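Tokens for chain A. Residues wanted.
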């Protein structure tokens, strides 16, 4: 989880944009970022990238083996020029022959701006992002200007914003970002939908009623292989009348995806697929936000792994900021979690949860961020 100060989106330290000519520097002076609406920041970014295009853009960097820190490579000069044009490197009056620390810092900055793993390695993904033509970036900015206009058309002050390509959720209070955490979203075949719904409840120590499709197609084979899977993972088996059954009394081998008359309910605890907390905003898609025991997935730069719900990296701390007006401190939440008993908190004032698809953003420092088009919606 990340705490955000006023006028900050927790981005990298601001850097001065470096351009190919002094004339461009003068022309861009009027585009210095200030506190402004997201649409205006994108408009300023569009003007900057159009100027880059007018002066020739950047040339593609040849493919080849991964360029590692400290190495020499004939493409290093091209990488330095590319990063200078986009402003990641800054104006450095020397030739680069070795991948030194100065250039590494610029690559790390570029990787952070493009949702890439920040490892300073110029590998396949980083090279692909470097080689996206400026014309495509201009089109991307234009697409996201319209998306942003639609998102912020409503006069919202307090809300949660889930940006699917950025893999983040942010809590806004009085129109200012207060806290942000990483999220996991739906995979390509089970995409997280775009919609808005009011957050009404926060559930501590939730149970998980397994959707029938997951139970019959994903869990049933594991149960048939070893019925002990149920007890090890704290699953109860419930029949259609609501009775809890002994798994040993069920002929699991006779069941299949089209013949599965039971409901699986996972009890609260460390193995629960919803983790220790979930956020409910009732909607037609059955989507919610929740914790997850699979914390290792948050180390990935691309995090489209779920069945459509939004999994949060730091939901407990996030909940403490969200529920502060309800009188719930982090200590009080932790104490309730220790009981292992399910407890539902109703928000006195429901907050809108807005799920959006923004592949380009600009922060208040004027730094432009591009995210991968994980669902292929920029191409449509």
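Reply:
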């Amino acid at each position: 989880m990340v705490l955000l100060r006023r006028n900050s989106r927790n981005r990298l330290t601001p850097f001065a944009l470096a351009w190919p000519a002094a004339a461009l520097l003068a022309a861009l002076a009027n585009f210095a970022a200030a506190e402004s609406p997201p649409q205006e920041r994108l408009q300023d970014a569009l003007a900057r990238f159009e100027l880059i295009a007018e002066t020739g853009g950047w040339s593609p960097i040849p493919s080849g083996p991964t360029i590692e820190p400290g190495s020499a490579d004939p493409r290093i000069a091209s990488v330095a020029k590319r990063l200078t044009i986009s402003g990641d490197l800054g104006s450095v009056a020397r030739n680069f022959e070795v991948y030194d620390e100065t250039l590494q810092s610029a690559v790390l900055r570029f990787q952070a701006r493009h949702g890439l793993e920040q490892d300073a390695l110029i590998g396949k993904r980083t090279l692909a992002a470097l080689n996206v033509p400026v014309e495509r970036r201009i089109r991307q900015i234009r697409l996201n200007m319209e998306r942003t206009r639609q998102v912020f058309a409503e006069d919202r002050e307090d809300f949660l914003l889930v940006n699917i390509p950025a893999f983040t959720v942010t809590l806004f209070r009085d129109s200012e970002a207060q806290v942000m955490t990483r999220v996991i979203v739906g995979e390509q075949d089970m995409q997280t939908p775009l919609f808005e719904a009011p957050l009404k409840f926060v559930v501590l120590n939730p149970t998980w009623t397994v959707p029938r499709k997951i139970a019959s197609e994903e869990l049933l084979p594991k149960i048939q292989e070893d019925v002990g899977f149920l007890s090890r993972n704290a699953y109860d088996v419930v029949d259609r009348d609501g009775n809890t059954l002994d798994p040993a009394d069920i002929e699991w081998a006779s069941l299949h995806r089209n013949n599965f008359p039971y409901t699986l309910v996972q009890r609260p605890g460390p193995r629960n697929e919803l983790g220790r907390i979930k956020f409910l905003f009732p909607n037609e898609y059955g989507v919610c936000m929740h914790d997850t025991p699979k914390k290792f997935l948050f180390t990935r730069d691309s995090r489209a792994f779920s069945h459509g719900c939004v999994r949060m990296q730091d939901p407990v701390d996030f909940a403490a900021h969200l529920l502060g007006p309800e009188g719930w401190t982090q200590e009080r939440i932790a104490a309730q979690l220790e009981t292992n008993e399910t407890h539902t908190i109703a928000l006195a004032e429901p907050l809108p949860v807005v799920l959006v698809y923004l592949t380009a953003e600009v922060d208040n420092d004027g730094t432009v961020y591009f995210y991968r088009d994980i669902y292929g919606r920029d191409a449509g």
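The longest strand covers residues 343-356. Residues 3-34 have pLDDT under 50 and may be disordered.
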